[in-house]
Amino acid sequence: MIDHIGIRTANADKLILFYTNVLATLGIEKKAENPGGACFVTTAKV
């Protein structure tokens, strides 16, 4: 079970917005964001 996802990319703004919206449908929310990257986590029970 994936409990966190980290992304780091040169095109971060667009991808972070995309992943924020897509992952929200799976119960995964953005936990932290920094220049060029973000971390997403879920608290869903397995």
From TrEMBL:
It comes from the Bacteria. This is Glyoxalase/Bleomycin resistance protein/Dioxygenase superfamily. The lineage of its organism: Bacteria, Pseudomonadati, Pseudomonadota, Betaproteobacteria, Burkholderiales.
